[in-house]
Every structure is written in structure tokens, then in C-alpha cells.
Amino acid sequence: MSNYARLPVTFERGEGAWLWDEHGRRYLDALSGVAVCGLGHAHPAVTQAICDQANQLVHTSNLYSIKHQQRLAEELTALSRMQNSFFCNSGAEANEAALKIARLVGHARGIGIPTIVVTENSFHGRTLATLTATGNLKIQQGFEPLMPGFIRVPYNDVAALRALAKSDQNIVAVLLEPIQGESGVNIPDDDYLNQVRAICDTHDWLMMLDEVQTGMGRTGRWFAFQHHGIQPDVMTLAKGLGNGVPIGACLASGVAAAAFTPGSHGSTFGGNPLACRAALAVVDTIRRHDLVKRAAYLGNRILTTLQRELAGCGHVKAVRGKGLMIGVELDRPCATLVKQALEHGVLINVTAEKVIRLLPPLILTDAEADQISDAVSRLVTGFTH
Ligand SMILES: *Cc1c(COP(=O)(O)O)cnc(C)c1O
Asked: Which residues contact 176 (CB under 8 A, 6 or more apart)?
């Protein structure tokens, strides 16, 4: 089906931060399959784990206990200081689980129409519930009727959230991204998440964080909420969790962790031995090589170079980022830069029309990081449309 406008290139193999197309041409990957391949391509530890597990056992179903799923849940809950984990196969599915948990918690409290607060410019996925939660008309258009039970406030607006508490008695949860990815690497004020946490505490709302893009070390912490010294009630993961093997997770604490009971939710493939083994290798590799710290260092290195090189550039509105989640916002649409970069052998992304988004792998060398900053600086400086 023609739901993608694809670039005219086909990759055949990858290694680290590099991809090779069918003609043997090499490209530096500053996108990582949209924040998925945090360990780069064909990482030997992940490849080994996938091969070993494929030789042993790929799938059994959740009718039986799954050792690697149990181990992965222990790793992720320890790293995030959350209690329980549910496994699925994508970010949208992880968010569906979060939304269903919120509704269960609401009903258990006697709220007939439990309402979930979401934010403008958010992205939570493409299923009917998650596209309803998404704050982007383009993503919703044509798929009406949307789901009931959502209310929207501006992102990074504590007053708007506080005002809702006065007017709406049905709210059970707030769902938001710690940094908005798809809408242009929007980083809220430093204390925004802390304030949201405080409001949720006051009104007994669940704080649910969509860390599908920000999680797994990308922002320079294992999970972006850890920059702020808070704990969410629910957190969703996917993209970077399996380094390309499809897996999602919904982690929860407190009442949210106990909301699902046997039969209330499920997934045929979710948390199967193959996917969990791959994710265990990802966790182990990030820890073993201290890649969370490395992401913070590399991100800072790229960001400061870009800020320096683009300082006098009239059409650059902002250069922002946290760890290896970096955005360069221009004052005009710049989607054509993606193709120009491709021609120069560099893979970048443009999102929200005007924002160049960089999501390179955490395993970059310093030289590769510099190559990315140089290429992007040159492209932006020469961009005159
Ligand atoms: C990519 C993304 C999703 C959707 O993930 P899928 O695996 O494509 O369903 C949800 N939330 C955020 C923040 C994302 O970046």
C-alpha cells in the first residue's frame, strides 16, 4: 500500500553507524531507523543473542512462563525503579496498554467516563486510540470518529493542566512525552515534568510517560524522566528496546501495576523469547559499554558544534537537544534537505516540516559525531530556499 513516500535508496547491509546500499555506496546513519538501532547496525552482541535464541526457541506464547521475558522485566523495572512490566510489539501497542490501564483504574474508582489528558503536538502512534491521543490533525484526518475520553492541553503549560483539575472531575491520567520527538524535538521547561508530577499527586491522576523515543539511553539517562528526579506511574518503551527486533513494553507502579488481571489484556507475540533475548542483549550492551553516559557526551559534542557553526545563520531559529536527540529548527520548510544529505552520504530526518532531527546511534565514534555535525552545518548553511 502506498502509505509511505520512500526515498530512492535500498540498503543491503549495515555495520555500526554505517549502511551500504545495493551499489556498495556507504552512508553515515544519523537517524538509526528512527531511534531504533541505538547500538548501530548488526551489533555483534545483539546478532549473537538473536542467533543463539533462534537456534533454541523462538516462540511459545504467553500461556506459559517465559524465562527471558521474566529476566527482561527484572532488568527494566530495576533500571527504572518501576514495579511491573507488560510486553508487546510496538510503541503504539505499549501506549494502548497504558491507556487501557488508565481506564481500568478510573472504573475501579467509580469514574464512569475516565478521561485521559494529552498534549498538543504529541505523537503516540497510529492505532485508533493512540492517534486520538496524538496532537496532530494530519494523523487523525480521515479516521474519524476518534475515541472519546481524551482532553487536550498545550504542551509545557502547567497552568492549563492545573485549570483542568478545577473543571473536570473525570480525569484519571496524563499521558505525555518527556521530550516531543515527532513534532520537532520540543524540550519543555526544566521543571515541567516535576510540576506535572506534583499536579498528578494532588489530584490522584496517573502520570504516564511515553518514552518510546526518549528511552533506552537516548537522552543521556536510561529514561528521560531520570533527568528530573521523579517517578512516573506508567512508562512506555519500544523503539530502542530491541535494536530493530520488534518489542514494546508498558511499565507501571502502584495501582497501575496491579490494574491488569488474567484475561484483561494480552498479546500473542508480545514478550516472546526471541524479542526478549534481543532486548536483554541491548540492555547488557548499553550497561557494559556505559553508552548512556556516552550518549550524553556525544549529544553535547554535536549540539555545541552545531550551535557554534550555525550561530550566525539567519534562517536557523533554534538548535536544541538532549543527549542524542537533536533538532535544528529552520524558519522555513526544509524536507528537501533529507535528499541532499542522502546525496552526500548522510541519513538525516526532517520532522514537523521545519526541523532537522538527528537520532544517531549511541555507538558513534567522536570522529563520526564530528562528521555528522560538519555535514549538517554545511547543508544548513548552504540551504537558501
Ligand atoms: C514512534 C513513536 C510511537 C509509535 O511507535 P510505533 O512502534 O511506531 O507504534 C509512539 N510514541 C512515540 C513518542 C514515538 O516516538
From this structure: 118, 119, 122, 155, 196, 208, 209, 210
